[in-house]
Amino acid sequence: MAETHKAGVIRFYDTHPINEDEILAKLAARGDDLAHLTEDQLKDFDQDHYGGIEVVDTLAARAGIARAHRVLDVCSGMGGPARWLAHRIGCRVTGLDLTLSRVEAARRLTRRVGLDGLVDFVHGDATAMPLPTAAFDRVVSQEAWLHVPDKPAVVRECARVLVPGGVLAFTDVVLRAPLAAHEERRLAAEMHAPGVLPASDYLALLARNGLAVASSEDLSAAWTEILVRRLAMYRGLRDTTVAKFGQAHYDAWDATYGFFVGLFAAGKLGGLRAVATRAAGAAPAR
Ligand SMILES: C[S@@+](CC[C@H](N)C(=O)[O-])C[C@H]1O[C@@H](n2cnc3c(N)ncnc32)[C@H](O)[C@@H]1O
């Protein structure tokens, strides 16, 4: 039976070169004491987006996240951004992710650095969040919605869980020039990224869901540079990836990631940072 899209995403992250074992190995190799790990140490290796904690700080500043806020990180992965926000700002953060192995790793890493009083993780789908309506002051997300085929549903859910006047701030991959049919197929099949939207469509989607766009930034140039370095970083993880998942998996990953980075270098894919405010009383579109 053909693998469903969701099953493909989960397998992609279950077998991702950046994982809990690899993070702990890097910390140990640096000489950090794993029994007394701090967030200031962990933050160097647990961010699975483009740009590390600096861009989490930028997103938090754009969203105006403050200590009193209840923050939701949609597609929180291993919890790197969620922990960093709680540690730096002191806010409560909930992370939501589809991949159970990511949620479980996030919980373990959070306990390790003693942030479990402020940060918790929920296993679930961003298009049907198992979370109450109007429960969060700020919603953030980084480099994840490319994997969600139903982007209207994820935006609608973000609007639903925000309080009126609450702010959504996210970054994601966007389409800058048309893809050839074979590129579109490969992006969907190998990167599990179907239906990447142009930035203008994303902004229109926000507006349709009662989210007034406050700012949008084109991150394409910065991301292209970061992705070239990221490909080199993955190649540096060759031995650990082969040991954990096998040579064939490494080879397939390398070819896929090289293809993905090539689409950025060719000006076909890029990055968007968008910030939008939920209008008081606005009902999410159906
Ligand atoms: C590139 S990682 C980003 C993780 C995190 N935002 C970070 O910056 O470290 C993308 C994450 O999106 C999650 N994801 C993909 N589709 C999802 C969905 N429909 N609902 C919730 N999470 C999803 C994956 O499981 C993965 O953990």
Describe this entry's structure for a reader.
This protein has one domain: Vaccinia Virus protein VP39 (Rossmann fold, 3-Layer(aba) Sandwich). Helix content is 47%, strand content 19%. A 7-stranded mixed β-sheet has the order 3-2-1-4-5-7-6, with helices on both faces. The longest helix is centred in the C-terminal third of the chain and has 19 residues, at 247-265. The protein has 12 helices and 7 strands. The model has no long low-confidence stretch (mean pLDDT 96). With 286 residues, the chain is an alpha/beta fold. The protein has helices spanning 5-14, 20-29, 39-42, 52-63, 80-89, 100-112, 151-161, 181-190, 199-208, 220-236, 238-245, 247-265, and strands at residues 70-74, 92-97, 119-123, 136-142, 162-175, 211-218, 269-278. S-adenosylmethionine binds at residues 9, 13, 47-49, 75-77, 80-81, 96-99, 102, 125-127, 142-144, 147-148.
Number of helices, counting only DSSP H or I runs of 4 residues or more: 12
Do you know the CATH architecture? 3-Layer(aba) Sandwich
What is the CATH T-level topology?
A: Rossmann fold
How many discrete structural domains?
A: 1
Key terms for this structure?
286 residues; alpha/beta; Rossmann fold; seven-stranded mixed β-sheet; 12 helices; globular
Give a short overview.
The protein has 286 residues and is α/β, with parallel strands linked by helices. The chain has twelve helices and seven strands.
